[in-house]
Amino acid sequence: MSFLIYYLILAIIPIWAQMKVKRTYSKYERVYNASGMTGAEVARMILDENGLYHVKVLEHSGFLSDHYNPIDKTVNLSTSNYHGRSIAGAAVAAHECGHAIQDKVSYGPLRLRHRLVPAANLGSNASWIFILIGLFTHATGMFLLGIILMALAVLFQLVTLPVEFNASSRALKQVTALGIIRDGEEREARQVLSAAALTYVAAAAVAVIELLRLILIFSNLNGNNNNNN
């Protein structure tokens, strides 16, 4: 029963975060920003003001699929944000430009996250193979290897947090300094960015909780093996 409750909690945390994001975004997607600028125009202005003339602003399909691609130097905005003139669209566009600015200034956590991508992918894909082998065969070495691989994926999640928070901070400074949002709209834009950050916080929290559970299982497994010997 306790395992059922545990996994139910792990499932609820990200679902709650996603619902919070969708609810907040939908609310402010219907509120026009005072400047009347589209998300694409907001992104272009911020990029140009920061000397990032080479970074392109592209339309991207999908709901809230907005992202910055450091490889081809593009800010990709979902259709509703690319064409929309809402506070939500302006906030999201500015956030992605925040990542472009981070890239320009070689922001430390962003560089570290890029370096961790191969290890995080390996950890996410392979960790459970070794964990399950170790669990069923009582091979603590295999189980520990799985934990180490998972820890790399968790580290990636944790490093992502300052990257996202910093991008949002840069976004708010840009949209207020450039007059993109005005007359108290900063509070509303902050709500959009804070809600979006919850998804990363939730993912990191779930990853850390699961890693701690596996470490506890390893400790018990290792203790039992030592007692048997």
From TrEMBL:
So where does this one cross the membrane?
Answer: 6-21, 116-136, 142-163, 192-218
Q: Which Pfam families match?
A: Zn_peptidase_2
Going by the UniProt record, its keywords in alphabetical order are:
Membrane, Transmembrane, Transmembrane helix
User: InterPro entries attached here?
Assistant: Zn_peptidase_2
Q: What is this protein called?
A: Zinc metallopeptidase
Originating species = Weizmannia acidilactici
Gene it is expressed from: yugP
